[in-house]
Design a protein that fits this description.
There is one protein chain. The chain has 208 residues and is an alpha/beta fold. It is built from 5 helices and 10 strands, in the order βαβαββαβααβββββ. The strands form 2 sheets. Strands 1, 2, 3, 4, 5, 6, 9 and 10 form an 8-stranded mixed beta sheet that branches. A two-stranded antiparallel sheet has the order 7-8. The longest helix is centred in the middle third of the chain and has 10 residues. It is globular.
Length: 208
């Protein structure tokens, strides 16, 4: 576990969970929200910063967490490339990200992203995210995909829209009061620096 960086970690809830079950040497939580960082548990270092602005001056880490943060950055491949450079030899990056089941669903969700995350830049599919990892020079050690119901609070005009034809059939949804629940996927990945990869730019159609 060693030195742990929680990138975009907010109040450090995930880092605190890890600390309860494992024994990291140190924990640093990075986020752009000063109020959230003020709530981090005692014993954690904090850094008020965007992920994209981190550098070697912030240290290098054995373990980096990036849970539900890649859709907030302007370029996910650039953010991942930077995080890879902050890994110590033998280090790992955990990425946990909600993804759309197909490109059509991703476009639908991207158009309605402000319902859940007003500052969201992208909606990924599984294949798109795996492509991003390769372009960032990261190798996939392990991956788990789990179905998930995403809670969205739409505008009043959109409440009636409860189905959408995706590439692989109807997009699963159900409405409850003033909330729509959309069937998406949780993708959990363990990544390592891939010395044989050649990091490059953003792949085509990686996200919408």
């Amino acid at each position: 576990m060693g030195k742990l960086l929680d990138a975009g970690g907010g109040s450090g809830a995930l880092a605190a969970y890890v600390r309860r079950h494992l024994d990291p040497e140190s924990i640093t939580v990075v986020d752009v929200d000063a109020a959230a960082l003020a709530e981090t548990p005692a014993g954690m270092h904090t850094r008020l910063s965007r992920i994209e602005d981190l550098s070697d001056a912030d240290g290098r880490f054995d373990t980096i967490l990036a849970r539900q943060v890649l859709h907030y950055v302007a370029s996910a491949v650039d953010a991942l490339t930077l995080l890879r450079k902050l890994l110590l030899p033998g280090g790992v990056i955990y990425v946990g990200q909600i993804v759309a089941p197909d490109q059509s669903a991703a476009r639908w969700l991207a158009e309605r992203a402000s319902w859940a995350s007003p500052t969201r830049h992208s909606v990924f599919t599984t294949d798109a995210l795996l492509s991003l990892f390769a372009h960032a020079g990261l190798g996939l050690e392990r991956a788990v995909i789990a179905p998930h119901w995403q809670r969205l609070k739409p505008t009043a005009q959109a409440i009636g829209a409860t189905t959408h034809a995706g590439d692989n059939g109807a997009m699963a949804m159900h409405a409850e009061d003033d909330v729509i629940h959309v069937r998406v996927l949780w993708l959990h990945c363990l990544l390592v620096a891939d010395e044989t990869a050649r990091p490059g730019g953003m792949p085509r159609q990686a996200a919408v």
